[in-house]
Specification:
This protein is of the alpha+beta class. The chain has helices at about 40-60, 60-70, 95-100, 110-125, 130-135, 145-155, 155-165, 175-185, 265-275, 280-290, 295-315, 330-340, 345-365, 380-390, 395-415, 420-425, 430-445, 450-460, 480-500, 510-525, 535-540; strands at about 105, 140-145, 190-195, 195-200, 205, 220-225, 230-240, 245, 370. The structure holds iron/sulfur cluster.
Length: about 550
C-alpha cells in the first residue's frame, strides 16, 4: 500500500513500504527498466482535492479538473547513504516478527505510524534525562520536514506525532484519543516528564520546510526546550513501513537463523524430509535471529492478535463517513448488524461475516486508528479478519500463534523473492500477499500438513496475480478497504480448496507463483503501481 516519496523519480532505493535493511517487509529496488514514476498517491490526493474544488468553482468536469491539477511531482531528494535503510543486503531470510507485524496508527505506515513511533521514542528518551535538566524544561516541539510537512496534514501526521509526544504508545493508543486530537485542535494537553508537567497542543507539531537537503524525505526533529535553550534534540527519519531511524542510528545486531532458507523449496527439506514442524522451525529461527525467548515471542504475537481483534471489534460498531474527499461511508457495522436477519443462508452468512471483519479493520485504517501491518497498512484488514474468524471457531490461542508464524513465513518469502510494495508490484504484492498469508495462517491454525499450508498460500496468491494498485484520489480506501474483505474471503477459499485436493497433485508450487508475481511486478505498467495514474484512479470521478 504504502509507497514512499523517496522512491518517486527513482532517487532512492527504499520502496517506502518498509525499512529495507533489517525489516524485510518489502523489496527495495524499483525494477530494472521500469520507468520512474512521477506522481505519488499523496500528491495525487492533493491534486484531486484541488480538482474537486475547481470543479465546484468552475463547473468543469472532475476529470478535466483532475487532469489539469495533476502535475509531475518535483524530484525527491536523494537519501543519505548513511541511512541503514539504504544499506541493503541479500542472503538468508533474516526478518523478525517485530519487523514484520508493526503496530501503530494508519492510514500510512511512513507518514502516520512512523512519526508516532518517533515522538514516542523521543518521549521515552527525555523521560530518562537527569532531573535537574528536566526541572528547567518549558516546552516540547516537533518539526516536520520534507514529505512529512508537504503531505502530513492529510495523513494525520500532526495528531499522531502529538499522541506520541504525550506518551501514548503506538500499539495501544485508544482510537478515541486520536480522534479527540483531530476534533479539538486547540485543546491543551498535559504531559509529565519527571518532575515537570508541560502543556502541549497540536501547534507544538510544526509543519516546517517541505524542501531542502534532508537526510531522508521524511525527516523530523524533536526538541526539549528551556525557554530559548535546547536541552535535548534529535533528528529522526521515518524510513517507511513504520520503521524509524535517527542521526547516528545503528541497526540492532542479529543472530544467524538456525534453519537458513530463501525459498519455499528450502523449507520443504526441513519440513517434509526432516519432519520439523513449521512452527518449531520458525520459532527457533526467530529466537536465533532476534535473541528473544519463546515466552517473549508468544507474548508479542498475543499482543498483535489483541490489537487486530480489538480493531475489528471497534470497526464493527463504528459507522461514519471516512476522512478524505471520497466521502466513503463505512460498511462493516451494517454488514454485521444485518447478519442477524440475513436470508443468505449458511454460505452467504459465512462470507458476509468474514468480509465484514475485513471491512472493519480496513475502515479503521482509513480512520487513522491503530492497525498492524500484515504485510502493509493497505492490506491490514485481511489477517485480522482471519484471526477473528478463527476465534469464532474457538481455535486455541496457541494455534493462532502458530498461524501467525506460518503467515509471516509466507510474507518473508514474498518479500525476499518478489515485493510487498504496491508501488513496485501493484496490489498483488499487498492484498495478494496478505491473502496468501491468511490462507497459510488458517491452514496452520487448523492443523493442516506443511504441504497444504504451502498449497493454500499458493492458491490465494495465484488468484491475485496481476492485481493493480490504483487507489482513487490517492486515498487508501477505494479499492483498498473492499479488497481487504475479498482478500480474507479468498484466504478461506484457498484453504478450503487446498484442504480438499490431493496435496501432492497440485500443479503449481508456491515458489513458482512468487516468481510469477515478481515477473508480473517488473512488467506491470507504472500507471498501476500506486501512482493513481491508471485504472480506478482515473475512471472514478469525484464531484
Ligand atoms: S490498491 Fe492495494 S496496493 Fe494500492 S494502496 Fe490500495 S491496498 Fe495498497
Amino acid at each position: 500500500m504504502d509507497k514512499l516519496l523517496n522512491v518517486i523519480n527513482g532517487s532512492a532505493k527504499g520502496c517506502g513500504s518498509c525499512h529495507t535493511t533489517t525489516c524485510g517487509t518489502c523489496a527495495t529496488e524499483v525494477p530494472k527498466g521500469e520507468p520512474r514514476t512521477v506522481l505519488n498517491r499523496r500528491d495525487l490526493g492533493r491534486a484531486v482535492l484541488a480538482a474537486s474544488v475547481t470543479t465546484l468553482l468552475t463547473g468543469c468536469s472532475g476529470k478535466e479538473a483532475t487532469e489539469k491539477a495533476v502535475q509531475p511531482a518535483p524530484a525527491a531528494p536523494a537519501l543519505s547513504p548513511e541511512l541503514a535503510v539504504v544499506q541493503q543486503s541479500k542472503g538468508p531470510i533474516m526478518t523478525t516478527l517485530e519487523e514484520f507485524y508493526k503496530m501503530g496508527p494508519g492510514p500510512s505506515s511512513s507518514h502516520t505510524m512512523g512519526p508516532m513511533r518517533i515522538t514516542y521514542d523521543f518521549f521515552q528518551r527525555v523521560s530518562k534525562l537527569p532531573e535537574d535538566q528536566l526541572k528547567r524544561a518549558t516546552a516540547l516541539k516537533v518539526h516536520l520536514f520534507g514529505s512529512l510537512s508537504a503531505t502530513g496534514k492529510g495523513h494525520g501526521t500532526d495528531r499522531a506525532s502529538l499522541a506520541g509526544l504525550l506518551g501514548k504508545a503506538p500499539a495501544t493508543c485508544p482510537p478515541a484519543f486520536l480522534d479527540g486530537l483531530a476534533a479539538n485542535p486547540n485543546e491543551v494537553h498535559k504531559v509529565t516528564i519527571g518532575p515537570t508537567t508541560l502543556d502541549l497542543t497540536l501547534k507544538d507539531v510544526i509543519f516546517d520546510a517541505s524542501k531542502g537537503d534532508f537526510h531522508h524525505p521524511n525527516t523530523m526533529t524533536a526538541k526539549l526546550l528551556a525557554g530559548s535553550d535546547t536541552l535535548y534534540e534529535l533528528e529522526y527519519y521515518s524510513v517507511g513501513g513504520g520503521f524509524i531511524e535517527w542521526k547516528g542510528y545503528k541497526p540492532p545486531d542479529k543472530g544467524q537463523p538456525k534453519y537458513t532458507f530463501e525459498h519455499a523449496r528450502d523449507l520443504k527439506k526441513y519440513l517434509i524430509d526432516d519432519k520439523i514442524p513449521l512452527p518449531k522451525l520458525l520459532l527457533a529461527n526467530e529466537m536465533a535471529i532476534s535473541g528473544k525467548s519463546e515466552k517473549d515471542i508468544w507474548e508479542f504475537l498475543d499482543q498483535v492478535s489483541e490489537v487486530m481483534v480489538r480493531g475489528v471489534d471497534t470497526g464493527l460498531t463504528a459507522e461514519s463517513v471516512l476522512p478524505g474527499p471520497i466521502k466513503l461511508h463505512s460498511k462493516a457495522a451494517a454488514m454485521q448488524r444485518n447478519l442477524k436477519t440475513s436470508i443468505k443462508g449458511d454460505a452467504g452468512r459465512a462470507v458476509t461475516r468474514v468480509a465484514s471483519y475485513g471491512f472493519a479493520m480496513g475502515e479503521e485504517n482509513a480512520r487513522g486508528h491503530i492497525i498492524v501491518t500484515a504485510p502493509t497498512a493497505g492490506s491490514a484488514g485481511i489477517i485480522p479478519a482471519v484471526v477473528k474468524s478463527l476465534r469464532d471457531l474457538n481455535t486455541s490461542q496457541q494455534n493462532i500463534r502458530e498461524g501467525f508464524l506460518a503467515a509471516a513465513a509466507i510474507g518473508y518469502l514474498c518479500k525476499h523473492n518478489a515485493t510487498l510494495s504496491g508501488a513496485e508490484g501493484g496490489c498483488q504484492a499487498e492484498v495478494g500477499v496478505g491473502s496468501s498469508m491468511g490462507a497459510a495462517m488458517i491452514a496452520q491454525a487448523l492443523g493442516a500438513s506443511p504441504k497444504v499450508v504451502s498449497n493454500a498460500a499458493e492458491s490465494a496468491l495465484e488468484h491475485h496475480l496481476g492485481m493493480t494498485c490504483d487507489p482513487v484520489a490517492g486515498y487508501v480506501q477505494v479499492p483498498c478497504i473492499e479488497r481487504c474483505a475479498y482478500g480474507a474471503v479468498k484466504a478461506w477459499t484457498a484453504y478450503c480448496i487446498a484442504s480438499e485436493e490431493i496435496p501432492e497433485e497440485r500443479r503449481v508450487d508456491l515458489d513458482t507463483t512468487i516468481d510469477a508475481m515478481s515477473l508480473t511486478a517488473k512488467e506491470m505498467n507504472s500507471k498501476y503501481k500506486e501512482t493513481s495514474e491508471g485504472g480506478l484512479a482515473v475512471s472514478v470521478v469525484l464531484c
